[in-house]
Fold this sequence. Notes:
Radius of gyration: 13 Å
Helix content: under 10%
Largest sheet: 7 strands, mixed
Strand content: over 45%
Distance between the termini: 40 Å
Oligomer: single chain
Low-confidence stretches: none
Amino acid sequence: QxxxxxxxxxxxQPGGSLRLSCVASGILFSVYDVxxxxxxxxxxxxxxxxxxxxxxxxxxxxxxxxxTISRNNAENTVYLxxxxxxxEDTAVYYCNVRSIVIGDYWGQGTQVTxxx
Length: 116
């Protein structure tokens, strides 16, 4: 059974940093792309960043330069380092693994709140 568990969210002041983690189980983690998505209040879920199985990242324009996605395949973990956080970054952040082989899996989400 595929399971994704996010952690690391919290309340942070504008300009602050957070590192989110997503731990996967039940899959051969290293072969799959992993994405971080977010859904802010009253907004649609949107892609923040995605990293290939080989470790090649790509980012949404809204976070480029402030966010770094990385992975440790030995620990089945993907990280999202977020710096210079803004109030508009407030959202529930979700980890996702999707492929035609295994299907579409989401974690339960972790809340990030950026507020003074």
